[in-house]
Design a protein that fits this description.
This protein has six helices and nine strands. By secondary structure, the protein is of the alpha/beta class. A hairpin with a 2-residue loop joins strand 2 (about 20-25) and strand 3 (about 30-35). Helix 3 (about 70-80) crosses helix 4 (about 95-100).
Length: about 180
């Protein structure tokens, strides 16, 4: 099952009803965060999005898309988090995000790895059940500043062969059943 929670859709300026950029995708027990504008963690609490996430994806580094990561990382540290966190973003991510997460903190009490991505890259299985059954494709966008977009693409899954329906359809048991089973 896949759910998408819009945490913010208000572009560069929050309103009373809408926060700046943030999107949570929950898939089979895993939560992925796309963008982390200011106030994102409050929106996560408001809409019941799990803080047990291990990856955040950034499209570009306008402030309204990443300033919330400073407070979110600090909150996770105060909650005693020990699991590593991965941050993904386009060229410049290592510099910008490393500086951002070090603000107001002597040291982050868990590992934070920053990965730079570019259009055409694919992020697959990341171990520990992360990314199992899907890939994240990085695509070019036209927003400037080296921005990228992300597409979650599930691996193809074959359906189950229904013997009763095959018999009801008059398909003879044997090689044809094998062909149908293999797609």
């Amino acid at each position: 099952m896949l759910t998408v929670t819009f945490l913010g859709t208000s572009a560069a300026r929050p309103t009373v009803e809408r926060n700046v950029s943030g999107l949570a995708v929950h898939r089979e027990g895993e939560t992925l965060l796309f963008e982390c504008g200011e106030g994102t963690q409050r929106q996560m609490m408001r809409y019941g999005v799990s803080f047990a996430l291990s990856e955040i994806f950034f499209t570009h580094f306008h402030a309204d898309h990443f300033l919330g990561v400073i407070g979110l990382i600090r909150t996770l540290g105060l909650q005693g988090r020990e699991e590593p966190m991965r941050l993904y973003g386009p060229r410049g991510a290592k510099k910008v995000l490393t500086q951002a997460i070090s603000l107001g903190v002597e040291r982050v009490p868990f590992e934070v790895a920053v990965m730079e991505v570019k259009a055409g890259d694919t992020i697959g299985d990341r171990g520990g059940g992360k990314g199992e059954g899907y890939d994240i494709h990085i695509v070019a966008t036209e927003h400037g500043g080296g921005s990228v977009g992300y597409a979650l693409k599930e691996h193809e899954r074959r359906g189950r062969f229904d013997v009763a329906k095959a018999r009801a359809a008059g398909i003879p048991e044997g090689p044809l059943w094998g062909k149908l089973t293999r797609g």
